[in-house]
Specification:
Blueprint lengths: L21 H11 L26 E3 L5 E3 L3 E2 L9 H9 L4 E3 L7 H9 L9 E6 L6 H15 L4 E6 L12 H19 L3 E7 L3 H8 L8 E5 L7 H9 L3 E5 L11 H9 L4 H11 L3 E2 L6 H6 L10 H8 L13
Parallel strand pairs: 3-4, 4-5, 5-6, 6-7, 7-8, 8-9, 9-10
Antiparallel strand pairs: 1-2
Length: 333
């Protein structure tokens, strides 16, 4: 990537006084300029039956003023060389938000693709995550530097704690709470020194967030969780909104199962869209960022084409009513 070096980030601003990021706007413009692949018969914004008349957002402003692109490209299970072609395709079609993690074993390859893309570093929003084996203050700092070295950059736009504890089990002992706070202190340090423009968590429940907010200096900017109509975490979503924490969804398509649902197919037909596009639009319309993954070029392109229609209130409610509190990935509760 060109322009690897960065200047120290300004101190966190209150959400009420922060200005949108110039680079965030540029990333949004890049996605906005991507040619639409939707059918010409798709309902336009003006003809949508939704009561909302606001244009669909291309980015969400985090509480420190950083712009998080609404749509990102996920890379889970695309290990090593398998990630290169999909990321190249995504970049070519206008994605400027790439999500990875230490445990995905693809940071080095993503860095190689980005370095060959011709894009300036500031034009791409890069997220990575701290794996659960690296909890603890010093281990967090060490893991972060490993990640940015592999990615070929000197900073991250967003760094997340991947899992709320050093093990996958659901115990929540006092030692687990203590090590989570040690980890967060390291995250705060990375943010304060400008090495992470934004910091956050992943797979955190309301309980985990309450515990963190009670002791932290910097409230998480993002909580990335499993979120789709079968797992409509409305309580968690409302809690995050109340504390200015941006929710970001993974597994938005229900790991491929939801796109086959007959009711979702019926809704999609009404808008001349695919089930995947409806599921992504549903989350975005709720104010939730998304990071769909695909290795299929047409699907990668189609997943971007979610900004030219608005789901009606009735269809939004239908999708909400499908909730089963059903985890298809991991349950951290």
């Amino acid at each position: 990537l060109h322009g690897l070096h960065h200047t120290n980030m300004p101190k966190r601003k209150e959400a009420t006084s922060s200005e949108p990021s110039k680079k965030g706007k540029e990333r949004a413009k890049a996605q906005d300029s991507t040619p639409s692949s939707s059918s010409s018969s798709s309902p336009s914004l003006a003809s949508s039956s939704s009561s909302s008349s606001s244009p669909p957002p291309r980015s969400f402003e985090l509480h420190n003023g950083i712009e998080l692109p609404v749509l990102g490209f996920g890379t889970y299970r695309l290990k090593t060389a398998a990630v290169k072609n999909p990321v190249e395709i995504a970049i070519r079609h206008g994605y400027r938000n790439i999500d990875t993690a230490m445990i995905y074993n693809n940071e080095k390859e993503i860095g190689q693709v980005l370095s060959q893309s011709g894009l300036d570093r500031e034009d791409v929003f890069i997220t990575s995550k701290l794996w659960r084996a690296d909890h603890g203050y010093e281990k967090t700092l060490k893991a972060f530097h490993k990640s940015i070295t592999k990615l070929g950059t000197t900073f991250l736009d967003l760094y997340l704690i991947h899992w709320p504890g050093p093990s996958k089990n659901k115990k929540n002992t006092s030692s687990d709470k203590e090590i989570r706070m040690q980890t967060w202190r390291a995250m705060e340090h990375l943010h304060e020194t400008g090495m992470c423009k934004a910091i956050g968590v992943s797979n955190y429940t309301i309980q985990h967030l309450q515990e963190l907010i009670a002791e932290c200096k910097v409230v998480p900017m993002v909580n990335q969780v499993e979120f789709h109509p079968w797992l409509y975490q409305s309580d968690l979503h409302e809690f995050c909104k109340a504390h200015n924490i941006q929710l970001q969804a993974y597994a938005s398509l229900g790991v491929g199962d939801l796109v086959k649902d007959p009711e979702i197919k019926t809704i999609a037909k009404k808008y001349s869209k695919s089930s995947a596009q409806v599921l992504l639009r549903w989350a975005v319309q709720l104010g939730v960022a998304v990071i769909p993954k695909s290795t299929n070029e047409q699907h990668i392109r189609d997943n971007m084409d979610i900004f030219d229609f608005i789901l009606s209130d009735e269809d939004m409610d239908k999708l909400k009513s499908m909730n089963q509190d059903r985890h298809l990935c991991w349950d951290p509760s």
